[in-house]
Design brief:
190 residues, 16% strand, globular, metal-binding, EC 4.2.1.1, zinc
Length: 190
C-alpha cells in the first residue's frame, strides 16, 4: 500500500470515529506564541512535550535549521500574519544540536541534485539569472549563531511592531533540554 493510500485509509477511520474532537480549538494561539523550529523528525513530538505545548497553544512554523533566510520570505510573512491577524505577541526561534543544516556543503548538495537528475544546464541557467547557490544552500557551523541570526532578522524587521518579544533557544533532540540563547525579555527592539 502506498503512503498516501495508507494515510487516507487511516484518515477515513479518524473522521468516522470523531477522533478530531479532542484537537478542536480556535485559529488563535492560546499562548500568543509563534515558534519557528527545525523540521527535524526527532522534534515532531519531543518539542511540544518539552515545552508543555498542546494543540491550539502556538503557531508553529517549521523550516530547515529553523533558519529565517529572507526578511521578506514566507517564514517572515507567516510570523507577521501570526502577530497582526492571529494575536501572537512573542516569537521563539528554536534550533537544535546535531542539525542537518550544520555545516551543509553547497557543492555536495548540488552534486546530490545532479545525481537525482537535475541537469547542469538548469543549474547554469539559475546561476546566470543571479541565483547564488552558495548563499541559498549555506548551512551553519554553530547552532547558537544560527539562532541569533534568525532572532536578529525578526527583531530588526521594519514591520515588526514594538513590544513583540523575540526569543532564541536550542533544544537537545535526544533529551528535550532547552537552552536559552536570546531572552527576549532582556532585549529591547532597536
Amino acid at each position: 500500500m502506498s503512503i498516501l493510500k495508507e494515510i487516507l485509509a487511516y484518515n477515513e477511520k479518524f473522521v468516522e470515529n470523531k477522533e478530531y474532537q479532542k484537537y478542536q480549538t480556535t485559529k488563535f494561539p492560546e499562548k500568543k506564541l509563534v515558534i519557528i523550529s527545525c523540521m527535524d523528525t526527532r522534534l515532531t513530538e519531543l518539542l511540544p512535550q518539552a515545552m508543555n505545548i498542546k494543540n491550539g497553544d502556538v503557531k508553529h512554523i517549521k523550516t530547515a535549521g529553523a533558519i529565517i533566510a529572507h526578511p521578506f520570505g514566507s517564514v517572515m510573512r507567516s510570523i507577521l500574519v501570526a502577530i497582526y491577524a492571529l494575536k501572537a505577541s512573542e516569537v521563539c526561534v528554536i534550533g537544535h544540536h546535531d542539525c542537518g543544516m550544520s555545516a551543509l556543503d553547497p557543492d555536495d548538495f548540488i552534486e546530490k541534485m545532479k545525481d537525482k537528475g537535475i541537469q547542469e544546464e538548469t543549474l547554469n541557467t539559475l546561476k546566470y539569472s543571479g541565483m547564488d547557490f552558495n548563499q541559498w544552500l549555506k548551512g551553519f557551523d554553530k547552532v547558537e549563531d544560527a539562532v541569533k541570526d534568525s532572532v536578529s532578522m525578526v527583531k530588526h524587521h521594519p514591520l515588526l511592531p514594538e513590544g513583540v518579544r523575540i526569543h532564541g533557544l536550542v533544544i537537545d533532540p535526544e533529551t528535550g533540554k532547552l537552552d536559552v540563547v536570546v531572552d527576549g525579555y532582556e532585549q529591547e527592539k532597536h
